[in-house]
Amino acid sequence: MMSRRVLPALMRATVCRRLPCNPPVLTGQRFSDVATSRESFVPGINKGKTSTGYVGLAVQPDWYNVMLEKFQALLDKMEASDMPSTAQYRIDVTKWCNFVIAQAKANPDDPEAVEDACRMGQVEELIEMAEDEMVALDAYLEVRMWEMVGTPEVVFEPDPSKDPMGPDGNADTAEKIRRGMEAK
Questions:
Q1: Of 100, 109, 97, whose CA–CA distance to 134 is shortest?
Q2: By the 8 A CB rule, do 111 and 49 touch?
Q3: Cα–Cα distance measured from residue 61 to residue 72, given in angstroms and rounded to the nearest whole number
Q4: Strand (E) or helix (H) holding 78
Q5: pLDDT at 184 (0 to 100)
Q6: How far apart are CA 23 and CA 17, in angstroms?
Q7: Distance separating alpha carbons of residues 174 and 165, to the nearest angstrom
Q8: How far apart are CA 80 and CA 135, in angstroms?
Q9: Which of 35, 37, 141, 154 is most buried, most CB within 10 Å of its CB?
Q10: Contact call for residues 66 and 60 (beta carbons, < 8 A)
């Protein structure tokens, strides 16, 4: 059970991570000027994206540069590490990063086209995924998880005419199959 002091601090840390902590500051404007300027404001029209629609996920106006920077940082970190190029994690993350970078470069002025091509949410979510993947990559590199993955032993019987349930089949295998069928 958490103490009463730790829980509010944890909640503040979570909220501050997700919400912008600096509210916009209006200088030199009266309230009436702001009210009249907002009357003609239509969200999303001639102003770019104004909201992600998710609480705590702010719009990233410079999404293109931030996205390229985050995904390239993942690629660079893997390249600089001693993780072998044959590690499946490295292969998968490299393919993902290269795909997202290619989509961003193909549509530098159209975040919706990137979102549609990647099919993983909004560009802000992709940026957040890259940040989270960097944390996972750090853990993967620290523990050297690629060394823990072994090659599975695959038993393959290429002769389809051998039926374990048939008269010439293995009785032990047939019994295991029967028990497995009965368990379901």
A1: 97
A2: yes
A3: 19
A4: helix 63-80
A5: 46
A6: 14
A7: 5
A8: 16
A9: 141
A10: yes
Residue 115 CB contacts under 8 Å (≥ 6 apart), including other chains = 121, 122, 123, 126
Instruction: Please tell me the distance from the alpha carbon of residue 59 to that of residue 114, in angstroms, as a whole number.
Output: 15
pLDDT in tens, 109-151: 899 999 999 999 999 999 999 999 999 999 999 999 999 887 7
Is 70 exceeded by the pLDDT of residue 162? no
pLDDT, tens digit (0-9, with 9 covering 90-100), for 7-43: 444 444 444 444 444 444 444 444 444 444 445 544 4
Which residues, in sequence order, are CB contacts of 90 under 8 Å at separation 6+? 78, 83, 84, 146
Quick one: which of 136, 110, 132 has its CA closest to 123?
A: 110
66's enclosing H/E stretch is helix 63-80
